[in-house]
């Protein structure tokens, strides 16, 4: 079956404009196709979100976020975004088409790269990433798969699907965003990312380009995450001795576990890379060679002696004598004099031209420095009250408008960002929109009661989940979710509107307390300890086992006095006292049926009688079975009857 037959998107006209030609790649959230923009008659790459994610607001928001993040960047090392829209239930993103391969494809073919090749690619990627950091954007998914190597030699950074506006601590929104092999320690341990997290991922990618392998490997993702959180990335030269020391230091600096010890952003790392590039490319020096010229006098020419060029000594007396009598001036001297006069006249014109240029430059400098054509960088007013932020921007000469946006980082009512973003150079009089935070976006909590805990967490990635609250349950199967609690420990009903990244806890069933009936005291304690209980005791009061199934001294059951039982809740073991026997008393000695019943039930016996309830308080029984003096097991039945 061909690709066109297998994929219904091939040949489809998206939004009446983009004709899909072929499939380029498929990812976890979307598929990328080659298409033709019929309006502009050019080839483009169109990224279409998977159909099963179309109803998920979290994925839709992330998809649109990619378009906004990439569209804010205009840099030769970042893939351009042209358009974004919705065709029926299908969300799409239109980008420039770059025929070529990814850095991952290159590494698969060549295993590892030379130092010069690595520097060429790293320089381009850092330049694009630095532009993103300057715009206040954290990529959060830097890896070889997102570095495109075009056939015409261009190198571009793509896939801003996980990008967010940067703040001092940008929360990820889920436990592990991005590829596990490139996650920074702070992402693994605290779920927090900033520009330094991108620098860490870039350091891992640099290590991989130089050695052909990733620094941390393991059979399970959590093993790799543990190494990121606890181990320092080794020097590439420990694997490949030919790696230059300067690149070892670059990797070590970029991958420090403590974010404070890394470069603050990609721009800082790029500056260091460019300082060492000449050394890595073969040591071309910027020093000029020493010039040695020969003496031009006839005598020196005859002897062919070479001398270093120095200051020329002029005999002023001889020069005056040569021009004392203009009539006697030799023709060569006159020619030189005329040339000198022409040069002096030309010098005045040059001087006037310099003054004119200086005046023009001064006027231009005023126009662009303080006049109407002046540019100014938009101030960072994030977190500031709207009125104060507006005054700040108006003082810069901008026209200020206002809008709103949801934000998980900035409190409700404060400025969350500006459009264009902070740091953008604009002419005075340009329009800047203040975007005021409306607080976190409210999202409906899905119904996860009864779901397996992993499935529930996959549905709750828009919220900040704390450690599971594990409890004993005789109704819910072990490992299933019983309830969802808010930050104060109150239950959250399914469908409730809850803030994005709001704190919540899953109540997870541990199943019932293990059955220890029939086990010895030590065996029962071990069984409960193996289950995870940390506080196990023996009940001081044993219980009789009326069934006879558990012998005396063995465990009868395990339980707790607490209503909610967790692994740290005290658990007690009740030991069996075995079967208890009792002697049947004589109850037909003149007392009523009611009194006989009270006496027998007090001994743990069950009483039946042929006397109606209406007369038990007045009729005296005449027979009993078993007879008085017989020993019976507690719980046995005694018949008390009246026989006329």
UniProtKB/TrEMBL annotation:
<keyword id="KW-0808">Transferase</keyword>
<dbReference type="InterPro" id="IPR005543">
    <property type="entry name" value="PASTA_dom"/>
</dbReference>
<keyword id="KW-0067">ATP-binding</keyword>
<dbReference type="GO" id="GO:0005524">
    <property type="term" value="F:ATP binding"/>
</dbReference>
<protein>
    <recommendedName>
        <fullName>non-specific serine/threonine protein kinase</fullName>
        <ecNumber>2.7.11.1</ecNumber>
    </recommendedName>
</protein>
<feature type="domain" description="Protein kinase">
    <location>
        <begin position="18"/>
        <end position="291"/>
    </location>
</feature>
<keyword id="KW-0723">Serine/threonine-protein kinase</keyword>
<feature type="domain" description="PASTA">
    <location>
        <begin position="371"/>
        <end position="438"/>
    </location>
</feature>
<dbReference type="Pfam" id="PF03793">
    <property type="entry name" value="PASTA"/>
</dbReference>
<dbReference type="GO" id="GO:0045717">
    <property type="term" value="P:negative regulation of fatty acid biosynthetic process"/>
</dbReference>
<dbReference type="InterPro" id="IPR011009">
    <property type="entry name" value="Kinase-like_dom_sf"/>
</dbReference>
<dbReference type="GO" id="GO:0004674">
    <property type="term" value="F:protein serine/threonine kinase activity"/>
</dbReference>
<dbReference type="Pfam" id="PF00069">
    <property type="entry name" value="Pkinase"/>
</dbReference>
<keyword id="KW-0547">Nucleotide-binding</keyword>
<dbReference type="InterPro" id="IPR008271">
    <property type="entry name" value="Ser/Thr_kinase_AS"/>
</dbReference>
<keyword id="KW-0472">Membrane</keyword>
<dbReference type="InterPro" id="IPR000719">
    <property type="entry name" value="Prot_kinase_dom"/>
</dbReference>
<feature type="domain" description="PASTA">
    <location>
        <begin position="578"/>
        <end position="644"/>
    </location>
</feature>
<keyword id="KW-0418">Kinase</keyword>
<keyword id="KW-0812">Transmembrane</keyword>
<keyword id="KW-1133">Transmembrane helix</keyword>
<feature type="transmembrane region" description="Helical">
    <location>
        <begin position="347"/>
        <end position="368"/>
    </location>
</feature>
């Amino acid at each position: 079956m061909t690709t066109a037959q297998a994929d219904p998107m091939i040949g489809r006209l998206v939004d009446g404009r983009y004709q899909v030609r072929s499939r380029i790649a498929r990812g976890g959230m979307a598929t990328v196709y080659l298409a033709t923009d019929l309006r502009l008659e050019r080839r483009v790459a169109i990224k279409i979100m998977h159909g099963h994610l179309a109803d998920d607001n979290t994925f839709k928001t992330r998809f649109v976020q990619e378009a906004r993040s990439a569209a804010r960047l205009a840099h030769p090392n970042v893939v351009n975004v042209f358009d974004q829209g919705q065709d029926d239930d299908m969300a799409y993103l239109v980008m420039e088409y770059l025929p070529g391969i990814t850095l991952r494809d290159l590494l698969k073919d060549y295993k590892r790269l030379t130092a010069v090749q690595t520097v060429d690619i790293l320089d381009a990627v850092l330049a694009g990433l630095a532009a993103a950091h300057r715009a206040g954007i954290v990529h959060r998914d830097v890896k070889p798969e997102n570095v495109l190597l075009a056939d015409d030699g261009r190198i571009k950074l793509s896939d801003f699907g996980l990008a967010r506006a940067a703040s001092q601590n940008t929360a990820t929104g889920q436990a592990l965003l991005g590829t596990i092999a490139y996650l920074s320690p702070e992402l693994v341990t605290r779920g927090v990312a900033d520009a330094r997290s991108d620098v860490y991922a870039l350091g891992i990618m640099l290590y991989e380009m130089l050695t052909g392998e990733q620094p941390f490997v393991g059979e399970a993702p959590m093993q790799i995450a543990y190494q990121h959180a606890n181990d320092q990335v080794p020097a590439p030269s420990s694997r490949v001795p030919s790696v230059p020391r300067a690149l070892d230091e670059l990797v070590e600096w970029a991958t420090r576990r403590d974010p404070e010890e890394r470069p603050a952003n990609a721009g800082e790392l790029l500056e260091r890379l460019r300082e060492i590039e000449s050394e890595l490319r073969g040591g071309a020096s910027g020093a000029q060679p020493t010039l040695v010229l020969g003496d031009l006098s006839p005598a020196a020419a005859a002897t062919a002696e070479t001398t270093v060029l120095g200051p020329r000594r002029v005999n002023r007396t001889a020069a005056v004598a040569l021009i004392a009598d203009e009539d006697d001036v030799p023709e060569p001297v006159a020619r030189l004099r005329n040339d000198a006069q022409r040069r002096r006249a030309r010098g005045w014109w040059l001087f006037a031209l310099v003054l004119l240029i200086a005046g023009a430059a001064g006027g231009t400098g005023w126009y662009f420095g303080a006049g109407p054509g002046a540019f100014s960088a938009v101030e960072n007013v994030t977190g500031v009250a709207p009125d104060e932020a507006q005054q700040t921007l108006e003082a810069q000469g901008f026209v200020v408008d206002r809008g709103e946006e949801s934000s998980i980082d900035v409190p409700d009512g404060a400025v969350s960002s500006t459009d264009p973003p902070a740091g953008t150079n604009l002419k005075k009089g340009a329009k800047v929109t203040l975007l005021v935070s409306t607080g976190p976006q409210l999202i409906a909590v899905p119904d996860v009661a009864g779901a397996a805990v992993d499935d529930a967490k996959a549905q709750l990635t828009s919220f900040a989940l704390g450690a599971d609250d594990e409890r004993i349950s005789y109704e819910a199967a072990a490992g299933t979710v019983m309830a969802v609690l808010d930050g104060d420990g109150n239950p959250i009903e399914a469908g409730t509107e809850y803030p994005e990244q709001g704190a919540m806890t899953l109540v997870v069933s541990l199943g019932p307390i293990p059955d220890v009936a029939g086990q010895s005291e030590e065996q029962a304690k071990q069984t409960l300890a193996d289950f995870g209980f940390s506080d196990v005791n023996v009940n001081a009061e044993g219980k009789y086992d009326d069934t006879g199934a558990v012998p005396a001294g063995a465990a009868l059951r395990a339980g707790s006095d607490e209503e909610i039982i967790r692994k740290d809740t005290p658990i007690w073991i009740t030991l069996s006292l075995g079967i208890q026997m009792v002697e049947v008393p004589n109850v037909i000695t003149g007392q009523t049926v009611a009194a006989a019943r009270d006496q027998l039930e007090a001994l743990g016996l069950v009483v039946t009688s042929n006397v109606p309830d209406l007369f038990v308080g007045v009729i005296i029984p005449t027979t009993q079975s078993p007879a008085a003096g017989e020993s019976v097991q507690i719980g046995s039945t005694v018949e008390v009857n009246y026989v006329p």
